[in-house]
Amino acid sequence: MIHGLKDFQKKKSIDQQFRRKFEIKARADIGLFAEPSWIGDMTTENDIVLIYFEDKPMTFARIEEIQADHKPDWYHVKLLMLQVPIQVVTWILRTAYISGSEFTMNGNRMRLEQVTCPEDPETAIPDEDIVDDTPKTGEKGKKVISFSDLKKH
């Protein structure tokens, strides 16, 4: 439910993003032009991105807000820089730049890369590949070291 002007503008901005994405996809589907590579993985609000500066990872940020600019296909992107000290910045970017295409800022190459949670390492390794290297009971030459005994010394 929309309660205020800011909520309305936020919803309108998000609706415009997805409407634009749908229009581009529809035109590509009927053969008017090739579908851009960024269509499938659109970065949106609350996504974590890794910011690259001159092809080197610089910092992580969370996209706090995306507001439409007065120019078509440009947006005010509010980023919470996840660093110490915390900073909030607003960049004016095109849709393609938000979704990972390279752009320049003051002559420096920049890029945003959406961060996804890596696969759980426990499910990534098949059971047959796991080697049990825990010592078996009764093996000679094995010594158990107590950490509580080490603290006493």
Q: In a nutshell, what does this entry contain?
A:
Helices cover 25% and strands 30% of the residues. The protein has 153 residues and is of the alpha+beta class.
Could you characterize what this model shows?
It is a single chain. Mean pLDDT is 77; it is low at 33-40. This protein has helices at 5-29, 95-98, 121-124, 147-152, and strands spanning 48-53, 56-68, 74-82, 87-94, 103-105, 108-114. It is built from four helices and six strands, in the order αββββαββαα. The protein is elongated, with a radius of gyration of 25 Å. Helices cover 25% and strands 30% of the residues. The protein is α+β, with helices and mostly antiparallel strands and 153 residues long. It has a six-stranded antiparallel beta sheet. The longest helix is centred in the first third of the chain and has 25 residues, at 5-29.
Tags for this model:
alpha+beta, six-stranded antiparallel β-sheet, 153 residues
* Major sheet size, sense and barrel closure: 6 strands, antiparallel
Helix/strand order, N-terminal first: HEEEEHEEHH
State the assembly state of the protein chains: single chain
**Strand arrangement, largest sheet?**
4-3-2-1-6-5
| Shape, per Cα inertia axes | elongated
How would you classify the helix and strand content by structural class?
Answer: alpha+beta
Give the C-alpha Rg: 25 Å
Please indicate the percent range of residues in DSSP E strands (runs of 2 or more): 25-35%
Average pLDDT confidence is: 77
Q: Which regions are unreliable across 5 or more consecutive residues at pLDDT < 50?
A: 33-40
Q: What is the end-to-end distance?
A: 64 Å
Separate helix tally:
4
Number of DSSP-assigned strands: 6
Question: In which range does the helix fraction lie?
Answer: 25-40%
